[in-house]
Amino acid sequence: MSADSITLINPADETVLRTIEHSSIEQVDDAVARGVVAQRKWAALAPVERANALRRFAVVVDSAIEELAWLEVRNSGHPIAQARWEAGHVRDVLNYYSAAPERMIGKQIPVAGGLDLTFLEPLGVVGVIVPWNFPMTIASWGFVPALAAGNAVVMKPAEWTPLTAIRLAELGLDAGLPAGLFQVLPGQGAVVGERFVTNESVRKIVFTGSTTVGKRVMAGCAEQVKPVTLELGGKSANVIFADSDLEKAAATAPYAVFENAGQDCCARSRILVERSVFDRFLELLEPAVKGVKVGFPGEEATEMGPLVAKAHFDKVSSYVDDESRVAFRGSAPAGPGFWFPPTVLLPTSRTDRAVSDEIFGPVVSVLPFDDEAEAITLANDSIYGLSGSIWTRDVGRAIRVARGVESGNLSVNSHSSVRYSTPFGGFKQSGLGRELGPDAASAFTETKNVFIATD
Predict the structure, then answer these.
(1) Residue 358 designated active-site
(2) Of 72, 194, 231, 435, which one is the catalytic site residue?
(3) Secondary structure string (H, E, C) spanning 54-77
(4) pLDDT given for residue 207 in this prediction
(5) Most C-beta atoms within 10 A of its C-beta, which of 121, 254, 319, 354?
(6) Is 221 in the active site?
Protein backbone atom coordinates (compact mmCIF):
# COMPACT_ATOMS: atom_id res chain seq x y z
CA MET A 1 0.00 0.00 0.00
CA SER A 2 1.23 3.50 -0.87
CA ALA A 3 -0.25 6.90 -0.14
CA ASP A 4 -1.90 6.87 -3.57
CA SER A 5 -3.01 3.27 -4.09
CA ILE A 6 -3.16 -0.28 -2.77
CA THR A 7 -2.60 -3.57 -4.56
CA LEU A 8 -5.23 -6.06 -3.41
CA ILE A 9 -4.16 -9.65 -2.71
CA ASN A 10 -6.38 -12.74 -2.77
CA PRO A 11 -5.94 -14.10 0.77
CA ALA A 12 -6.50 -17.70 -0.32
CA ASP A 13 -3.59 -17.94 -2.80
CA GLU A 14 -1.75 -14.59 -2.53
CA THR A 15 -2.34 -13.72 -6.19
CA VAL A 16 -2.77 -10.08 -7.19
CA LEU A 17 -6.37 -8.99 -7.79
CA ARG A 18 -6.11 -5.35 -8.86
CA THR A 19 -4.82 -1.95 -7.79
CA ILE A 20 -7.21 0.55 -6.23
CA GLU A 21 -6.49 4.27 -6.37
CA HIS A 22 -6.84 6.11 -3.08
CA SER A 23 -8.92 9.24 -2.66
CA SER A 24 -7.26 12.51 -1.70
CA ILE A 25 -8.52 15.08 0.78
CA GLU A 26 -9.56 17.26 -2.15
CA GLN A 27 -11.57 14.41 -3.66
CA VAL A 28 -13.27 13.81 -0.32
CA ASP A 29 -14.24 17.48 -0.07
CA ASP A 30 -15.58 17.45 -3.62
CA ALA A 31 -17.64 14.34 -2.88
CA VAL A 32 -19.07 15.87 0.30
CA ALA A 33 -20.01 19.02 -1.63
CA ARG A 34 -21.83 16.89 -4.21
CA GLY A 35 -23.51 15.04 -1.38
CA VAL A 36 -24.81 18.30 0.12
CA VAL A 37 -26.54 19.18 -3.15
CA ALA A 38 -27.89 15.67 -3.73
CA GLN A 39 -29.20 15.39 -0.18
CA ARG A 40 -31.35 18.51 -0.46
CA LYS A 41 -33.04 17.16 -3.58
CA TRP A 42 -33.41 13.68 -2.04
CA ALA A 43 -35.00 15.00 1.16
CA ALA A 44 -37.41 17.12 -0.88
CA LEU A 45 -38.85 14.04 -2.60
CA ALA A 46 -42.12 12.61 -1.38
CA PRO A 47 -41.49 9.79 1.12
CA VAL A 48 -43.06 7.26 -1.23
CA GLU A 49 -40.55 8.21 -3.94
CA ARG A 50 -37.60 7.62 -1.63
CA ALA A 51 -39.16 4.35 -0.50
CA ASN A 52 -39.56 3.17 -4.09
CA ALA A 53 -35.97 4.15 -4.89
CA LEU A 54 -34.70 1.91 -2.09
CA ARG A 55 -36.90 -0.95 -3.28
CA ARG A 56 -35.46 -0.57 -6.80
CA PHE A 57 -31.97 -0.64 -5.27
CA ALA A 58 -32.89 -3.91 -3.51
CA VAL A 59 -34.05 -5.44 -6.80
CA VAL A 60 -30.77 -4.52 -8.50
CA VAL A 61 -28.73 -5.95 -5.62
CA ASP A 62 -30.78 -9.14 -5.78
CA SER A 63 -29.88 -9.54 -9.44
CA ALA A 64 -26.18 -9.11 -8.57
CA ILE A 65 -25.94 -11.48 -5.58
CA GLU A 66 -23.66 -13.98 -7.34
CA GLU A 67 -21.38 -11.22 -8.62
CA LEU A 68 -21.11 -9.57 -5.20
CA ALA A 69 -20.51 -12.93 -3.51
CA TRP A 70 -17.61 -13.85 -5.79
CA LEU A 71 -16.06 -10.40 -5.30
CA GLU A 72 -16.09 -11.08 -1.55
CA VAL A 73 -14.65 -14.57 -2.03
CA ARG A 74 -11.66 -13.18 -3.93
CA ASN A 75 -11.14 -9.98 -1.97
CA SER A 76 -11.90 -11.14 1.59
CA GLY A 77 -11.53 -14.92 1.54
CA HIS A 78 -15.12 -15.53 2.66
CA PRO A 79 -16.55 -18.95 1.82
CA ILE A 80 -18.91 -18.71 -1.13
CA ALA A 81 -21.97 -19.87 0.82
CA GLN A 82 -21.34 -17.24 3.47
CA ALA A 83 -20.70 -14.56 0.83
CA ARG A 84 -24.01 -15.31 -0.89
CA TRP A 85 -25.77 -14.89 2.45
CA GLU A 86 -24.00 -11.57 2.97
CA ALA A 87 -25.06 -10.22 -0.42
CA GLY A 88 -28.62 -11.35 0.24
CA HIS A 89 -28.46 -9.61 3.61
CA VAL A 90 -27.73 -6.29 1.86
CA ARG A 91 -30.84 -6.81 -0.27
CA ASP A 92 -32.90 -7.63 2.82
CA VAL A 93 -31.68 -4.55 4.69
CA LEU A 94 -32.65 -2.38 1.71
CA ASN A 95 -36.11 -3.94 1.62
CA TYR A 96 -36.57 -3.57 5.40
CA TYR A 97 -35.65 0.12 5.49
CA SER A 98 -37.55 0.94 2.30
CA ALA A 99 -40.56 1.13 4.64
CA ALA A 100 -38.89 3.79 6.81
CA PRO A 101 -39.37 6.95 4.68
CA GLU A 102 -43.15 6.68 5.05
CA ARG A 103 -42.84 5.97 8.79
CA MET A 104 -40.61 8.81 9.98
CA ILE A 105 -43.33 9.80 12.41
CA GLY A 106 -43.12 12.72 14.83
CA LYS A 107 -45.41 13.44 17.75
CA GLN A 108 -48.20 15.77 18.76
CA ILE A 109 -47.58 16.73 22.39
CA PRO A 110 -50.43 18.16 24.54
CA VAL A 111 -49.51 21.69 25.72
CA ALA A 112 -51.38 24.78 26.92
CA GLY A 113 -52.20 27.57 24.50
CA GLY A 114 -51.50 25.84 21.24
CA LEU A 115 -50.38 22.82 19.28
CA ASP A 116 -46.94 21.25 19.69
CA LEU A 117 -45.46 19.03 16.98
CA THR A 118 -42.16 17.24 16.47
CA PHE A 119 -40.52 16.44 13.13
CA LEU A 120 -37.67 14.04 12.36
CA GLU A 121 -35.35 16.05 10.12
CA PRO A 122 -32.46 14.42 8.18
CA LEU A 123 -28.97 15.41 9.27
CA GLY A 124 -27.51 16.07 5.82
CA VAL A 125 -24.39 14.18 4.70
CA VAL A 126 -23.42 11.12 6.78
CA GLY A 127 -19.93 9.59 6.76
CA VAL A 128 -19.81 5.80 7.07
CA ILE A 129 -16.47 4.07 7.79
CA VAL A 130 -16.60 0.32 7.16
CA PRO A 131 -14.31 -2.47 8.50
CA TRP A 132 -12.70 -5.25 6.49
CA ASN A 133 -14.27 -8.26 8.19
CA PHE A 134 -17.83 -7.98 6.80
CA PRO A 135 -17.50 -5.36 4.05
CA MET A 136 -20.97 -5.69 2.52
CA THR A 137 -23.19 -6.37 5.48
CA ILE A 138 -21.80 -3.75 7.85
CA ALA A 139 -21.78 -1.18 5.04
CA SER A 140 -25.51 -1.71 4.60
CA TRP A 141 -26.18 -1.19 8.30
CA GLY A 142 -24.91 2.37 7.90
CA PHE A 143 -25.75 3.61 4.44
CA VAL A 144 -29.24 2.10 4.08
CA PRO A 145 -31.00 3.60 7.15
CA ALA A 146 -29.14 6.88 6.57
CA LEU A 147 -30.56 7.10 3.03
CA ALA A 148 -33.99 6.04 4.27
CA ALA A 149 -34.01 8.95 6.72
CA GLY A 150 -33.35 11.43 3.90
CA ASN A 151 -29.57 11.81 4.11
CA ALA A 152 -26.74 11.54 1.59
CA VAL A 153 -23.87 9.15 2.37
CA VAL A 154 -20.14 9.21 1.76
CA MET A 155 -18.59 5.86 2.63
CA LYS A 156 -15.00 4.74 3.17
CA PRO A 157 -14.44 0.99 2.79
CA ALA A 158 -11.52 -0.70 4.54
CA GLU A 159 -8.26 -0.46 2.61
CA TRP A 160 -7.95 -4.27 2.27
CA THR A 161 -11.53 -5.00 1.16
CA PRO A 162 -13.07 -2.19 -0.94
CA LEU A 163 -14.44 -4.13 -3.91
CA THR A 164 -18.00 -4.91 -2.84
CA ALA A 165 -18.55 -1.39 -1.49
CA ILE A 166 -17.42 0.11 -4.79
CA ARG A 167 -19.76 -2.20 -6.67
CA LEU A 168 -22.70 -1.40 -4.37
CA ALA A 169 -22.32 2.31 -5.17
CA GLU A 170 -22.39 1.47 -8.88
CA LEU A 171 -25.50 -0.67 -8.39
CA GLY A 172 -27.13 2.25 -6.60
CA LEU A 173 -26.64 4.40 -9.68
CA ASP A 174 -27.95 1.57 -11.87
CA ALA A 175 -31.06 1.50 -9.67
CA GLY A 176 -31.63 5.21 -10.29
CA LEU A 177 -30.28 6.81 -7.09
CA PRO A 178 -29.35 10.44 -7.80
CA ALA A 179 -25.70 11.08 -8.57
CA GLY A 180 -23.85 12.22 -5.46
CA LEU A 181 -26.33 10.68 -3.04
CA PHE A 182 -24.32 7.54 -2.21
CA GLN A 183 -20.58 7.75 -2.89
CA VAL A 184 -17.80 5.32 -2.00
CA LEU A 185 -14.31 6.74 -1.50
CA PRO A 186 -11.50 4.17 -1.15
CA GLY A 187 -8.47 5.39 0.73
CA GLN A 188 -6.48 5.45 3.91
CA GLY A 189 -8.16 6.03 7.24
CA ALA A 190 -5.71 8.82 8.06
CA VAL A 191 -6.83 10.66 4.91
CA VAL A 192 -10.42 9.78 3.96
CA GLY A 193 -11.72 8.76 7.38
CA GLU A 194 -10.02 11.68 9.09
CA ARG A 195 -11.49 14.11 6.58
CA PHE A 196 -14.98 12.71 7.14
CA VAL A 197 -14.49 13.61 10.80
CA THR A 198 -13.06 17.12 10.23
CA ASN A 199 -15.27 18.23 7.32
CA GLU A 200 -18.05 20.34 8.87
CA SER A 201 -20.52 19.41 6.13
CA VAL A 202 -20.42 15.77 7.27
CA ARG A 203 -23.00 15.84 10.03
CA LYS A 204 -22.58 12.37 11.54
CA ILE A 205 -20.01 9.56 11.57
CA VAL A 206 -20.79 5.85 11.70
CA PHE A 207 -17.63 3.90 12.48
CA THR A 208 -17.12 0.16 12.83
CA GLY A 209 -13.64 -1.03 13.73
CA SER A 210 -11.16 -1.29 16.56
CA THR A 211 -11.75 0.33 19.93
CA THR A 212 -8.43 2.18 19.64
CA VAL A 213 -9.39 3.89 16.38
CA GLY A 214 -12.96 4.39 17.56
CA LYS A 215 -11.71 6.47 20.47
CA ARG A 216 -9.82 8.72 18.05
CA VAL A 217 -12.91 9.09 15.87
CA MET A 218 -15.01 10.00 18.90
CA ALA A 219 -12.43 12.57 20.06
CA GLY A 220 -12.37 14.13 16.61
CA CYS A 221 -16.15 14.35 16.43
CA ALA A 222 -16.18 16.07 19.82
CA GLU A 223 -14.45 19.09 18.24
CA GLN A 224 -17.62 19.83 16.27
CA VAL A 225 -20.09 18.19 18.69
CA LYS A 226 -20.72 15.83 15.77
CA PRO A 227 -22.86 12.77 16.59
CA VAL A 228 -21.20 9.41 16.20
CA THR A 229 -22.23 5.76 16.28
CA LEU A 230 -19.42 3.37 17.21
CA GLU A 231 -19.44 -0.41 16.87
CA LEU A 232 -16.09 -1.52 18.23
CA GLY A 233 -14.32 -4.58 19.63
CA GLY A 234 -15.58 -7.61 21.47
CA LYS A 235 -14.39 -10.52 23.58
CA SER A 236 -17.66 -12.30 24.01
CA ALA A 237 -18.33 -15.15 26.41
CA ASN A 238 -20.07 -18.43 25.64
CA VAL A 239 -21.33 -19.50 29.09
CA ILE A 240 -22.15 -23.22 29.41
CA PHE A 241 -23.87 -24.58 32.52
CA ALA A 242 -23.86 -28.23 33.56
CA ASP A 243 -27.62 -28.56 33.02
CA SER A 244 -27.42 -27.52 29.35
CA ASP A 245 -27.66 -29.71 26.26
CA LEU A 246 -23.92 -30.29 26.39
CA GLU A 247 -23.74 -32.12 23.06
CA LYS A 248 -25.45 -29.27 21.22
CA ALA A 249 -23.41 -26.63 23.07
CA ALA A 250 -20.17 -28.34 22.06
CA ALA A 251 -21.26 -28.99 18.47
CA THR A 252 -22.19 -25.35 17.88
CA ALA A 253 -19.38 -23.67 19.84
CA PRO A 254 -16.82 -23.82 16.98
CA TYR A 255 -19.16 -21.98 14.62
CA ALA A 256 -19.69 -19.25 17.22
CA VAL A 257 -16.01 -18.36 17.07
CA PHE A 258 -14.48 -19.79 13.87
CA GLU A 259 -17.03 -18.45 11.39
CA ASN A 260 -15.32 -15.94 9.11
CA ALA A 261 -12.03 -17.33 10.49
CA GLY A 262 -12.80 -15.69 13.84
CA GLN A 263 -12.72 -12.25 12.24
CA ASP A 264 -15.94 -11.23 13.93
CA CYS A 265 -16.46 -8.76 16.76
CA CYS A 266 -19.28 -11.03 18.02
CA ALA A 267 -17.08 -14.16 18.11
CA ARG A 268 -17.57 -16.12 21.33
CA SER A 269 -13.81 -16.35 21.87
CA ARG A 270 -14.10 -17.15 25.60
CA ILE A 271 -15.89 -20.41 26.41
CA LEU A 272 -16.79 -20.56 30.10
CA VAL A 273 -17.79 -24.05 31.27
CA GLU A 274 -19.13 -25.18 34.64
CA ARG A 275 -16.34 -27.15 36.30
CA SER A 276 -18.37 -30.31 36.90
CA VAL A 277 -18.73 -30.87 33.12
CA PHE A 278 -15.50 -29.19 31.98
CA ASP A 279 -13.66 -32.37 30.97
CA ARG A 280 -16.72 -33.86 29.26
CA PHE A 281 -17.27 -30.65 27.31
CA LEU A 282 -13.70 -30.72 26.01
CA GLU A 283 -14.17 -34.34 24.91
CA LEU A 284 -17.21 -33.27 22.90
CA LEU A 285 -15.60 -30.09 21.60
CA GLU A 286 -12.53 -31.70 20.05
CA PRO A 287 -14.26 -33.61 17.22
CA ALA A 288 -16.47 -30.57 16.55
CA VAL A 289 -13.41 -28.34 16.13
CA LYS A 290 -11.60 -30.86 13.96
CA GLY A 291 -14.75 -31.24 11.87
CA VAL A 292 -14.79 -27.58 10.75
CA LYS A 293 -14.19 -27.64 7.00
CA VAL A 294 -11.33 -25.20 6.38
CA GLY A 295 -10.65 -24.82 2.69
CA PHE A 296 -10.63 -22.69 -0.40
CA PRO A 297 -13.39 -20.07 -0.32
CA GLY A 298 -14.79 -20.92 -3.75
CA GLU A 299 -15.64 -24.49 -2.75
CA GLU A 300 -19.25 -24.99 -1.75
CA ALA A 301 -18.43 -27.22 1.25
CA THR A 302 -15.97 -24.76 2.83
CA GLU A 303 -17.01 -23.46 6.25
CA MET A 304 -13.92 -21.38 7.08
CA GLY A 305 -11.51 -19.61 4.77
CA PRO A 306 -8.17 -17.85 5.29
CA LEU A 307 -7.35 -14.77 7.30
CA VAL A 308 -7.70 -11.56 5.33
CA ALA A 309 -4.05 -10.45 5.02
CA LYS A 310 -0.47 -11.34 5.92
CA ALA A 311 -0.24 -8.57 8.53
CA HIS A 312 -3.34 -9.91 10.26
CA PHE A 313 -2.04 -13.49 10.04
CA ASP A 314 1.10 -12.39 11.86
CA LYS A 315 -0.96 -10.70 14.59
CA VAL A 316 -3.13 -13.76 15.21
CA SER A 317 -0.07 -16.05 15.17
CA SER A 318 1.51 -14.04 17.98
CA TYR A 319 -1.15 -15.38 20.37
CA VAL A 320 -0.23 -19.02 19.78
CA ASP A 321 3.44 -19.61 20.57
CA ASP A 322 5.57 -22.27 22.23
CA GLU A 323 4.33 -21.24 25.67
CA SER A 324 0.64 -21.46 24.79
CA ARG A 325 -1.28 -24.35 26.32
CA VAL A 326 -2.94 -25.75 23.21
CA ALA A 327 -5.69 -28.30 23.86
CA PHE A 328 -6.19 -29.25 20.21
CA ARG A 329 -6.35 -27.75 16.73
CA GLY A 330 -8.20 -28.28 13.51
CA SER A 331 -6.59 -28.41 10.10
CA ALA A 332 -5.90 -25.85 7.36
CA PRO A 333 -4.53 -26.04 3.80
CA ALA A 334 -0.79 -25.85 3.24
CA GLY A 335 0.92 -23.65 0.67
CA PRO A 336 0.16 -20.05 -0.36
CA GLY A 337 -2.54 -18.15 1.49
CA PHE A 338 -3.06 -16.85 5.00
CA TRP A 339 -4.32 -20.09 6.53
CA PHE A 340 -4.67 -20.51 10.28
CA PRO A 341 -6.19 -23.67 11.80
CA PRO A 342 -8.99 -23.49 14.40
CA THR A 343 -7.20 -23.49 17.74
CA VAL A 344 -8.41 -24.19 21.29
CA LEU A 345 -6.35 -22.89 24.22
CA LEU A 346 -6.52 -23.80 27.92
CA PRO A 347 -4.95 -20.72 29.55
CA THR A 348 -3.46 -21.27 33.00
CA SER A 349 -4.32 -17.71 34.05
CA ARG A 350 -7.43 -15.64 33.64
CA THR A 351 -5.16 -12.64 33.00
CA ASP A 352 -3.50 -14.30 29.99
CA ARG A 353 -3.60 -11.93 27.01
CA ALA A 354 -5.34 -14.62 24.95
CA VAL A 355 -8.20 -14.34 27.46
CA SER A 356 -8.35 -10.54 27.54
CA ASP A 357 -7.35 -9.38 24.04
CA GLU A 358 -9.56 -9.41 20.97
CA ILE A 359 -7.47 -11.77 18.84
CA PHE A 360 -9.83 -11.53 15.85
CA GLY A 361 -8.85 -14.92 14.55
CA PRO A 362 -9.79 -18.61 14.95
CA VAL A 363 -8.45 -18.91 18.49
CA VAL A 364 -10.66 -19.65 21.50
CA SER A 365 -9.89 -19.94 25.22
CA VAL A 366 -11.79 -22.39 27.45
CA LEU A 367 -12.04 -21.61 31.17
CA PRO A 368 -13.87 -23.29 34.09
CA PHE A 369 -16.22 -21.68 36.62
CA ASP A 370 -17.83 -23.02 39.80
CA ASP A 371 -21.24 -21.37 40.09
CA GLU A 372 -23.64 -18.88 38.55
CA ALA A 373 -22.17 -15.86 40.31
CA GLU A 374 -18.66 -16.70 39.14
CA ALA A 375 -19.90 -17.25 35.60
CA ILE A 376 -21.34 -13.72 35.51
CA THR A 377 -18.17 -12.28 37.04
CA LEU A 378 -15.98 -14.01 34.46
CA ALA A 379 -18.22 -13.00 31.56
CA ASN A 380 -18.02 -9.37 32.71
CA ASP A 381 -14.24 -9.46 33.25
CA SER A 382 -13.55 -7.57 30.04
CA ILE A 383 -13.43 -4.01 28.76
CA TYR A 384 -15.83 -5.19 26.05
CA GLY A 385 -19.52 -6.04 26.12
CA LEU A 386 -20.85 -6.71 22.63
CA SER A 387 -22.38 -10.18 22.44
CA GLY A 388 -22.49 -13.59 24.06
CA SER A 389 -24.34 -16.85 24.62
CA ILE A 390 -25.83 -18.65 27.63
CA TRP A 391 -26.50 -22.39 27.63
CA THR A 392 -28.88 -23.75 30.26
CA ARG A 393 -32.21 -25.57 30.52
CA ASP A 394 -33.21 -23.45 33.54
CA VAL A 395 -35.30 -20.51 32.29
CA GLY A 396 -34.91 -18.60 35.53
CA ARG A 397 -31.13 -18.94 35.39
CA ALA A 398 -31.12 -17.87 31.75
CA ILE A 399 -32.95 -14.67 32.64
CA ARG A 400 -30.81 -13.96 35.72
CA VAL A 401 -27.55 -14.46 33.84
CA ALA A 402 -28.75 -12.49 30.80
CA ARG A 403 -29.64 -9.57 33.07
CA GLY A 404 -26.32 -9.89 34.89
CA VAL A 405 -24.01 -10.01 31.88
CA GLU A 406 -22.94 -6.57 30.65
CA SER A 407 -23.46 -7.04 26.94
CA GLY A 408 -25.60 -5.51 24.23
CA ASN A 409 -26.62 -8.73 22.49
CA LEU A 410 -27.17 -12.09 24.15
CA SER A 411 -28.71 -15.36 23.00
CA VAL A 412 -29.85 -18.32 25.08
CA ASN A 413 -29.16 -21.82 23.74
CA SER A 414 -28.05 -20.32 20.43
CA HIS A 415 -25.37 -18.02 19.02
CA SER A 416 -27.55 -15.52 17.18
CA SER A 417 -26.25 -11.95 17.41
CA VAL A 418 -27.54 -10.04 14.41
CA ARG A 419 -30.94 -9.56 12.81
CA TYR A 420 -31.67 -6.49 10.71
CA SER A 421 -35.02 -6.18 12.48
CA THR A 422 -33.56 -5.93 16.02
CA PRO A 423 -31.11 -3.44 17.59
CA PHE A 424 -27.39 -4.18 17.61
CA GLY A 425 -24.62 -2.54 19.63
CA GLY A 426 -22.38 -2.85 22.65
CA PHE A 427 -21.82 -1.96 26.29
CA LYS A 428 -18.60 -0.50 27.72
CA GLN A 429 -15.77 -0.17 25.17
CA SER A 430 -17.65 -2.20 22.56
CA GLY A 431 -19.28 0.94 21.28
CA LEU A 432 -21.83 3.70 21.46
CA GLY A 433 -25.33 3.81 20.02
CA ARG A 434 -27.34 1.13 18.23
CA GLU A 435 -27.63 0.00 14.64
CA LEU A 436 -30.37 -1.98 12.89
CA GLY A 437 -33.87 -2.56 14.23
CA PRO A 438 -36.97 -0.43 13.78
CA ASP A 439 -35.38 2.73 15.23
CA ALA A 440 -32.16 2.81 13.19
CA ALA A 441 -33.37 5.35 10.61
CA SER A 442 -34.38 7.83 13.32
CA ALA A 443 -30.79 7.76 14.60
CA PHE A 444 -29.93 9.66 11.40
CA THR A 445 -32.29 12.54 12.20
CA GLU A 446 -32.62 15.50 14.53
CA THR A 447 -35.87 16.05 16.41
CA LYS A 448 -37.34 19.46 15.67
CA ASN A 449 -40.02 20.83 18.00
CA VAL A 450 -42.59 23.32 16.63
CA PHE A 451 -45.15 25.15 18.80
CA ILE A 452 -48.16 26.79 17.11
CA ALA A 453 -50.07 29.26 19.26
CA THR A 454 -53.84 28.97 18.98
CA ASP A 455 -54.93 31.63 21.47
Answers:
(1) no
(2) 231
(3) HHHHHHHHHHCHHHHHHHHHHHHC
(4) 98
(5) 254
(6) no
